[in-house]
Amino acid sequence: MTDALPPVVVHLPRSLVALFPGTERRMEARGRTVAEVIDDLDTRVPGLRNRLVDAGPAIRTHLNVFVAGERAGLDSHVSPGDDIHVIPAVSGG
Amino acid sequence: MATRHALLLGTRKGAFVLDGDGDRRSWSLRGPMCDGWPIHDVTREASTGAILAGGGSPWYGPAVWRSDDLGRTWTHSSEGLTYGDGGPNVVTVWNVTPAHGVVYAGVEPAGLFRSGDGGRTWEHVEGLTNHPTRPEWQPGAGGLCLHSIVPHREDPDRMWVAASAVGAFETRDGGRTWATRNRGVRAEFHPDRYPEFGQCVHKLVMAADGGEHLYQQNHCGVYRSVDGGLQWEEVTNGLPSDFGFPMASHPRDPQTAWTIPLNGGDRGRYMPDASAAVWRTHDGGDTWIRAGDGLPQQDAYLGVLREAMAVDDRDPVGVYFGTTTGRVYGSTDEGRTWAVLADNLPPIWSVEAAVLD
């Protein structure tokens, strides 16, 4: 059960929350891993997981997730109170 | 209420709607929509009035967008739009086609998905991916994309699709099994000029009499088929080039179709001699007529991509196309004379004519 876990703070990029009107850029979520945190967010923002996670499953190629300042993957462990940043890669044209 | 004509545009930087008046003379632009995502195709679901847009974000992946209020607000979904965790990543959506109460999506890498709930959830049409030729499918310059979806008008179990550089396929059992439909189509880049598959279809469309009558613009020529693609006949003769991307068919006259030849796959892919023209046939491709009136006749290094030409259902038919330089041209006399309808847009990837009730 992740409900009993203390929350982590997830920071989402503008371009992501723009896809889900009403969603805040700073959200609290619960989970032991990045994957569980994303799943928790998806219960409140349906479809969010599909924007972040590709087949594999894996974080989408041009997105970076950092847990407490360290680059992370779906299986990366998160600790209570960690800040998780979702940051799009600098790309495009 | 007056009929509201609109052109639905997919561009490299979002979807746009070009609203027209009843005479199709005055147009005004709305957009960008879909949060500026690259959008390959925008269409309207006649049964619900919804606008559907297919594309993919380089950061957030593929999705089909849906608007139930004529483009004012949008939702998006890719739920089920996946080959599964063991499969390749779906990069983007190239074509969205509603038919018989179902919405189909063609994606890159090439495959077909369908939605029974208007694009909210998707199901992989595995029969096409399971075709024995699939391991040998190769991409064209635009990627390995399924770009043409042509449902049979009456029979929901029949459908044609086309992918580059794979060729055309037909199903007669609702997508469970598929057969290649490329006989008679050249593949000059292939050791066997007429292989079973591997042709670079650029656009596949159905003629007005439906059923078995198809046209295609290919990397290597223009073709017609009167037997559902079992046999194709090349009808390139009379055109300035065998290369082009879009193809459109008349909504009532099965012998009339339009194409926009470009100078060649290895010659820059712009209008021949940098002189813009749309070519039409009124005899099924036996002869072709050039129309450049209203189009730039010099220094026009324009490209027009596979989804970027459309026709409306008025009489006379309106014909429209968008360029890679972001300009929209329209004709209200079936392609004889042309006018600029919009300019300075992002590179245009798709044009669809719609009536917004």
Task: Outline the structure in words.
The complex is a heterodimer of chains A (93) and B (357). Chain A is globular, with a radius of gyration of 12 Å. Chain A contains three helices and seven strands, in the order E-H-E-H-H-E-E-E-E-E. In chain A, strands 2-1-7-5-6 form a five-stranded mixed sheet, with helices on one face. A two-stranded antiparallel ribbon of chain A has the order 3-4. The longest helix of chain A is centred in the middle third of the chain and has 11 residues, at 34-44. The N and C termini of chain A lie far apart (43 Å). With 93 residues, chain A is an alpha+beta fold. Chain A has helices spanning 14-17, 34-44, 48-52; strands at 8-11, 26-29, 53-54, 58-59, 63-67, 70-72, 83-88. Chain B has 357 residues and is mainly β. Helix content of chain B is 1%, strand content 42%. Chain B contains one helix and 28 strands. Chain B has one helix at residues 126-129; strands at residues 4-11, 14-20, 27-33, 39-44, 51-57, 61-67, 75-77, 92-99, 102-108, 111-115, 123-124, 145-151, 159-164, 167-171, 179-180, 201-206, 214-218, 221-225, 233-234, 243-249, 257-262, 278-281, 289-291, 309-311, 319-322, 328-331, 339-342, 348-356. In chain B, the strands form seven sheets. A four-stranded antiparallel sheet of chain B has the order 3-2-1-28, with no helix packed on it. In chain B, strands 4-5-6-7 form a four-stranded antiparallel sheet, with no helix packed on it. Chain B has a four-stranded antiparallel sheet with strand order 8-9-10-11. The longest helix of chain B has 4 residues, at 126-129. The model of chain B has no long low-confidence stretch (mean pLDDT 96). The interface between A and B is medium-sized, with 20 and 20 residues.
